[in-house]
Amino acid sequence: MSAENPWPLRVISKKIGDWVARLGEVWTEGQITQINRRGRVVYLTLRDPSAEVSMRVVDFSGTAAAADPPLRDGAQVIVRAKAQWWDKNGTLSLHLREIRQVGLGELLARLERLKRLLAAEGLFAAERKRALPFLPYRIGLICGRESDAMRDVLKNARSRLPSVDFEVRQVAVQGTKAVPEVCAALAELDADPDIEVVVIARGGGSMEDLLPFSDETLCRAVADAATPVVSAIGHEPDTPLLDYVADWRASTPTEAGKKIVPDLAEEQRGLNISRTRLRQAVNAILTRESDRLAAMRARPVLARPETMLESRAEAVENLTHRMRTRVRARLERSTDELEHLRARLRTLSPKSTLDRGYSIVTDAASGEILRDASDAGERIRVRLAAGGLTAAVTEKEED
Hints:
By secondary structure, this protein is of the alpha/beta class.
């Protein structure tokens, strides 16, 4: 096979048919979106509720017509079928062999299994839930087209905060298109940096109508969103799994409108009360500190500051007097000691001996004191108490 030797289209179609035939019978599940009857042949369109995937199912055996209860649009079914390739128009369909409608009990059992799975993965954990912003800049709203849920959210939010800004995405909230459209709207709003919180709202309905909000694909999309998500599905008896995954659950769209924004009037009252309390607290502090200042100024040391100087001056004067007295006594005592030393010095001084009539004789030549007459030279020096004499030695007497 090449560009020069291509296969005929019938060959390609036959090969595809042969490959599909090897697949054999399969079991699959989906939601019926369309039922057409042409004589005894029933044509069904089976759609995956979590994706934009659908396939035609053809029943030649009357199995679909004999279903009890009768099949209807939106019914969840499980079918056993064999894939069939139509050579003439190149289409793929499923030939029905058996069909089972999923009952309420089976749906509840599946939801419970999915609930346990998501809980085990931590998608319901409280620590992963984010707090809602106190005053969101812009709010994303996903709701049904022209629905009461949309009006309830907008009305209650704007009655509390008239300036609130909404980015609304109106989508299918039940049926086969619900999950893809809600997920697409969530992805779009989550990508907008101005959106600070997203509300998914729907009014009440039967359990079957609310099945899209328990879809695994939607639950995982909400868990992966970077923006906080509020679930506002108004159906109290049966809680959809979205309520467990969302960051905050509102029992009704009305409650969601009251939760996502603060009440302007209530916040204003709170501010006024806080302002009054603050003013009272500041006034109390000022009054208390003024009283403390007045009490401090009334103290003698501040009322007449020179008192401190006077008391210190008196202490300085006393210390000065004591210092002078001690210095004077010390001088007098030292003077007496000096006089005693002087008297002793005078007593020991040679001058005292001279005053009593003695004299000191030295050799006039050498100046040495003479103690022996034989040591005297020709001339001697005599020192008296007053003055002195120089004399010539004319005679020496030895003792």
